[in-house]
Task: inverse folding
């Protein structure tokens, strides 16, 4: 079972990183200590995950709200504007957002959270719109003709049918955010990027490797969890039968 | 009973439905026919307010449709569309239960109703747990009809319900619909561009052309006394005679005389069926069963053309 194996590797590497000390000491004898020591990897991971979770939750909530508005009959005019704003958001590199955010918001978690939220918004809002617009018009007409209210149509018909597409957007967004959050450490956020940045600045390659491996495993496990969720959703939306 | 009174719908300065008035008696099957763009689908959607009325009034029984909130109105009216529109993420049972659930029926009552409707449309109870994508087009539209009938509405609106099906399935479903109509006595308004289907199924036919109602009457009436050249061309054209044979009944042509040999035909059969039998049997005379135990008679080839 791939997910279980990846999750196990992720947990072991994060919890027992110090046990790999002799390995790194042998490869890079002049780096001491061989394992990054200013914070433990479980601590770094928790802080990293917290920033990503909050930013992705905010991006998802905003994307759902705006995407739903832009696909209502009264919000159609708003749809091109939303597309434009989201695309511009995506063309800004997260580093640039950080650079702009720091003077306003100061150092720490907050500018990172803002950059990740803005950056993660586009893939989600694009999929919310695509998912809702992908609901066949015949299904919507039938729902209306049966006497469902517009709120019931949204809740019982449109959102469940769009769910797999929306989830795919969230998945992309979260996996990107897990990787991108590492640059937050350049402005003082505590993330798995901290050992990477310190390693780059201090010319200590083992720290870079340690941080990168944990981030990579985190992203892989998160992606696999989303894949599971996707399969579950599709089974329950009749796409693959019973 | 459903009554349309000077109904108008205009959009973009154009009258899509232009001063249409007719009434369909309770329990009757009304076909709304016309070529595409005649305004028949719009007229149908005016009834359940999917399209807002510009002028005039529509009453179902004694209720003005404008007096009810649209959702409440629609829950009282069955609606079947050409593209079917089953909810793909719901099972067949959940699809059929759509309106009963909206109306807050108990689970037990819903379950019993679903079973009853599956039987009515001739599907095994095991279909209840299937998803729409596992069904053929014909089966899906059967479910569409069952869903529309679920809350026992007084009125059933059908917008080209069999238009997207293959001819064989279409004929089979039309036959089933006639049966369902006979059994449930629902008032049905049925939009189609297929005049043959209208002649076969309907008690009354409303013919529309460019937004106007050009004739309203029983099938035989319309064939025998077309109100205009348009109606004549639309309903019959070159094959008017054949269509008349399809609408007229053997009962009206029966001769009381000693029956001839062979299997007698039903008096309710159409003259077209009688003619077909004559050709097959290579005879110009068919025995006919008596109505309600009365002595039978026969029908002759010459009677068909009278």
Result:
């Amino acid at each position: 079972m791939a997910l279980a194996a990846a999750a196990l590797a992720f947990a072991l590497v994060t919890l027992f990183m110090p046990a790999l000390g002799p390995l790194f000491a042998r490869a890079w004898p002049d780096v001491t200590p061989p394992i990054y020591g200013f914070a433990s990897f479980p601590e770094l991971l928790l802080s990293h995950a917290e920033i990503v979770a909050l930013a992705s939750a905010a991006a998802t909530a905003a994307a759902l709200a705006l995407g739903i508005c832009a696909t209502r009959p009264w919000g159609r005019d708003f749809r091109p504007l939303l597309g434009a704003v989201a695309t511009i958001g995506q063309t800004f590199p997260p580093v640039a957002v950080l650079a702009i955010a720091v003077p306003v918001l100061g150092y720490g978690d907050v500018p990172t959270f803002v950059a990740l939220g803005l950056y993660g918004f586009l893939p989600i809002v694009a999929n919310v719109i695509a998912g809702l617009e992908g609901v066949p018009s015949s299904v919507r007409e039938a729902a209306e003709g049966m006497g469902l209210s517009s709120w019931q149509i949204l809740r019982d018909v449109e959102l469940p049918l769009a769910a797999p597409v929306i989830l795919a957007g969230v998945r992309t967004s979260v996996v990107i955010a897990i990787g991108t959050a590492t640059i937050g450490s350049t402005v003082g956020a505590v993330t798995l990027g901290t050992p990477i940045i310190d390693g780059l600045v201090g010319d200590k390659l083992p720290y870079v490797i340690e941080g990168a491996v944990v981030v990579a495993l985190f992203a892989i496990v998160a992606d696999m969890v989303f894949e599971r969720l996707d399969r579950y959703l599709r089974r329950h939306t009749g796409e693959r039968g019973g | 009973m459903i009554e349309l009174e000077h109904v108008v719908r205009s959009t973009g300065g154009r009258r899509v439905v232009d001063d249409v008035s007719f009434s369909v008696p309770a329990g009757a099957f009304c076909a709304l026919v016309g070529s595409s763009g005649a305004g028949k689908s719009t007229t149908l959607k005016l009834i359940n307010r999917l399209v807002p009325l510009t002028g005039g009034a529509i009453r179902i029984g004694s209720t003005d449709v404008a007096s009810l909130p649209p959702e409440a109105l629609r829950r009282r009216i069955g609606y079947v569309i050409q593209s079917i529109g089953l909810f793909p993420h719901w099972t067949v049972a959940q699809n059929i239960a759509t309106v009963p659930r909206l109306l807050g029926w108990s689970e037990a009552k819903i379950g019993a109703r679903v079973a009853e409707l599956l039987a009515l449309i001739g599907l095994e109870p095991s279909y209840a747990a299937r998803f729409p994508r596992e069904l053929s087009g014909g089966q899906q539209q059967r479910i569409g009809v069952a869903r529309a009938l679920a809350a026992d509405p007084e009125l059933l609106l059908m917008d080209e319900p069999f238009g997207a099906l293959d001819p064989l399935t279409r004929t089979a479903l039309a036959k089933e619909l006639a049966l369902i109509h006979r059994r449930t006595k629902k008032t049905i308004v049925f939009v189609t561009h297929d005049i043959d289907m209208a002649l076969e199924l309907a008690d009354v036919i409303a013919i529309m052309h460019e937004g106007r109602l050009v004739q309203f009457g029983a099938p035989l009436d319309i064939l025998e006394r077309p109100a205009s050249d348009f109606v004549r061309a639309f309903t019959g054209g070159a094959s008017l005679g054949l269509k008349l044979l399809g609408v007229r009944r053997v009962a009206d042509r029966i001769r009381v005389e000693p029956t001839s040999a062979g299997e007698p035909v039903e008096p309710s059969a159409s003259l077209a069926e009688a003619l077909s039998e004559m050709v097959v049997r290579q005879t110009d005379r068919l025995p006919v069963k008596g109505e309600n135990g009365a002595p039978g008679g026969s029908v002759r080839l010459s009677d068909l053309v009278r």
Remarks:
- DSSP finds ten helices and no strands in chain A.
- Residues 150 and 223 of chain A are 34 Å apart (CA to CA).
